[in-house]
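Reagents: none. Just compute today. Prohibitin family protein.
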Amino acid sequence: MDKLPKIGIPILIVVIGLIILIAKSAVTIGSGERGVLYKWIGGVETEEAPLGEGFQIVAPWNQVFKYNVRQQELFEEKMAVLSSNGLEIRLDASVLYQATTATVALLHQTRGENYEDDVIKPAVRSATRSVVGRYTPEQLYSTKRDAIQTEIFEETKKILEPQYIQLNAVLVRDVTLPPTIKEAIERKLKQEQESLEYEFRLVTAAKEAEKVIIEAQGKADANKILSASLTDKILQDKGIEATLKLSESPNSKVIVIGSGDSGLPIILGNQ
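Predicted 3D structure written out:
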């Protein structure tokens, strides 16, 4: 009976040691995550694929850093930048990015877990300042929104790709101008719109007038052709035809044959 406690104590110690060892060795990688293995001897493991989702066993003296490899969104609000003429513009933008499985170990080795603050934010701000500085406030407010969005994306991508960060999109959500500049631009745009409408009305009126002139000219030409084709003989024949039709009418009348100009009949009386 005295020997049981002496045997049980080492076993208990071994069991506790195993529990601690397993606890330190077991790692659970969540959905959408990858584990970057840091070895006590050798540092960050970049030659092998990162640890996948689920339960993983690693040596207790090594360490695992978890990274989200899904697409993530960074919202940059009210970035203050200068336009080409030196006026301050405030711009809101969303950045869609992700750490990829293939390069996540290199990202951890070169940039670390705070890469969003240390790399992405400065890159977006730098690219935005560079792009917006090429345009006037009027261009930014009206016609160039899509252009600056594309250019900011391209500039940011050049900065992030060599640093093992995949950039998926840059979305410019809002461009805020100083109130006085915005009002001046809106007045100018309104005046331009009114001018375009006035020019349109002038062009429309000119086309209508041209149409009327063409129709009148056509009628005049038709009358000339008709007049040229009507000889005295034709007119007499037409007059006789008309007289015959009138004579057949039931209304009372007196017809004097050959008494009119050019020998045409004259009709008297109409009751």
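The beta strands are 26-29, 33-39, 43-44, 54-57, 63-68, 72-82, 88-98, 166-176, 254-256, 266-268.
Action item: order primers for follow-up constructs.
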